[in-house]
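Researcher: Here's the sequence for the chain we discussed earlier.
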Amino acid sequence: MASPSWYWTLIQLKPSGGYATQAIAAARLGFQQQFPDLASPTRLESGDDKLIQRQLMGWLEDVAAPPGPETKPEPSQAEQCLRCYISHQILQVCIDLQAKFGQDHGFALNDLLGFVLNDVDLTQPFPTAKEDAYRPFAAEILTTFKPQVGSLSTWASMLTRQHPELNDFLLEHGILQQSSWALLNEKSPDDLRRILADTYNLPGFEIEQACQLLGSYHAVYRRDRRGSRGKCKPPTEPQLAEIQRRSGLALTPAAVLAKLVELADYLRQQRLLSKGVLPASSIDDEALGPAIEAQVSQADMAGTLGDRDSTQQLYDLVNTCLDQAINTAIDQRLTYLQKQSADKAKAYRLALKLYCCEQRTMAEIAAAVGLEAQYQVTRLLKIDDLLANIRRQLLQQLQTNLLALMQTEQLSHGYVGADRLQTLDETCLAAIVEKPRANAAGNEFFSQRLCSVIQRI
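Model: Thanks. This is the structure I predict for it:
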């Protein structure tokens, strides 16, 4: 909930870094005169917040406003109040993004604020879109806001998250601000067919099943979403059941959900890779994990094998696939850095070796590769992104190779069936592919494989 003071305090960037709150006397006076009963509470109820915004917008546009005080404030006071409020909403979005992704993806709050928090002089009204003058981002938010449709907080938050330069910056740091369901909505089966064939080289029958499932998803999800606005939410159980019936595929609703998420992940990674960015995070899908529970673990897979030959065969396969996955993930990162500069790629090789194989501190690595700060090493290495990519590559390698072995009957085992392969996902591999840490016995196997590959690059 908002505070009344948001309507008379402006959040501004400081030249020295960070941000500061500046009280605007004219805005405070106008607000207290028009809303005396709402100026003192520490928090505003949602209904009061919307009422304030409708009245301020009415006075700003100098049209008939909802019932309120007989004496209207100056339009400039109404605009100042709204611009102050918008600055707080922008700040909240950036704080949220930094808190969720900043540490793992190597950026600070200041990096985000510089793109969107650029309103400075409230004594001057916004220039119109046709005027050849500087227009801060808050101008776009305010001039496109329609109070009869929704709240200013929701509108400001949505436009901030959609800001082109902010999105480009986040994309460079491996964050794609689009949910799985929005990604699936915007791609046709023909688009998906081309991507799965050209980028991932999947078998033809698997591609056709994926396109069939996407077509069924569109028929149900687009129909039920028609006329809706805002964030695309995960499909409901009845929707999943209908998607399954339409597709004709022998899948449970849970498997349909898992397969749709997998297809969306293919689309997300393809978009990132096409821009030279490593695979990354989706802001909108944080709560999805519990809905798709992992069914396979390293322990129960090994424990249910019927004979020693099968066990050894699977062990050798994991080793081979893991080495291939590590190689691919590192090569992708090196290719991206090489496009920027050969020096950066060279620094990455050394930093990766020092971090993964010698467990050096970030400060030591920074000195060794000629960087000034530890956060620059974090941004260069992007270890969490690298590990996530390794898991994705390993998952694809295991699924492809296990299926091939079963089809040729070189590996015969009841536990590792087609249904188990469908529910195998990256969370199953978290115990295998985890961040290298000094004196951590749990990840000794992966650390050895990782270092073995790194030593050869």
